[in-house]
Amino acid sequence: MTDIAREIAAMPPRQAIFWLWGIWYGTWLLTVFWAGKSATKPNWAEHGLYQAFTTVGIALLFFGPLLQPVAPQLWITDVRTGWILFWATVVCFAFAWWARLTMGRLWNGFVGRTENHRVIDTGPFRIVRHPIYTAIIVAGFLLAFELGTTMALTGAALIGIGFWLKARLEEKFLRRELGADAYGAYARRVSMLIPFGPKSA
User: Fold this and answer.
1) Given 27, 39, 78, 170, which residue has the most CB atoms within 10 angstroms?
2) 127 lies in a domain?
3) pLDDT tens for residues 62-113?
4) 182 pLDDT exceeds 70?
5) Which residues make Cβ contacts (< 8 Å) with residue 71, sequence separation at least 6?
6) Cα–Cα distance between 5 and 53 in angstroms, integer?
7) Is residue 181 part of a domain?
8) What single string gives the DSSP state of each residue in 35-76?
């Protein structure tokens, strides 16, 4: 067990979940140096709506305790439930990393088409078309459930809406860039965000 792992194990589960988010985000930022160069991308105006939802959602979910320190809790989770939520969050981030490694240099932090882009339908992309978004949305709701406040749940919901809007924008863009037939065939086989959920027509 590393020193960081020991420190996390000694924490209350809520604090450990926040640490887990920090570790994931910190390591994720490092992958910016392992990203493909955008060949084309939508105009910046199209990014505004999803970015607004996710920004407000992140503020409510992660900074809610600072904005409203004595927010009434809808429920209080026990320690056992807290650690279940922690390990479920670990699974979410592992799923996101699986997708990131599967994409390799085809990944880019923004909606766009990288050089030599193609439809990826292996690994987690056989389960959902946007596995990274799915992982973040679920992890957000897991944290909100642990916090148990209206503000946290609202934040998680706004993050979910933001990534749904981003996925819709990306779908529209990739159909145009990669060809409606190629991407459409993939969309008919695999659901967008919900594993084994409804497919596109």
Assistant:
1) 170
2) yes
3) 988 777 667 788 999 999 999 999 999 999 999 999 999 998 887 877 776 6
4) yes
5) 64, 65, 149, 150, 151
6) 33
7) yes
8) -PPEEE---GGGGHHHHHHHHHHHHHHHHHHHHSTTPPBS--
Question: For residue range 6-53, what is the model confidence (pLDDT) as tens digits?
Answer: 776 778 999 999 999 999 999 998 887 776 666 566 666 677 889 999
What is the number of alpha carbons within 13 Å of residue 171 lying toward its C-beta? 22
Instruction: Please count the structural domains in the chain.
Output: 1
**Per-residue tokens: 169:** 């924008």
Cα–Cα distance for residue pair 87/83, rounded to 1 Å: 6
Q: What is the pTM of this model?
A: 0.89
Domain with residue 129: its CATH number is 1.20.120.1630
Count the Cβ atoms, other than its own, within 10 Å of residue 1. 8
Determine the structural domain holding residue 119 and report its residue range. Answer: 49-189
Q: What is the pLDDT of residues 124-167, one digit of tens each?
A: 999 999 999 999 999 999 999 999 999 999 999 999 999 999 99
Cα angle at 139 between 137 and 144, to 5 degrees? 95
Q: Please check whether residue 58 lies inside any domain of the structure.
A: yes
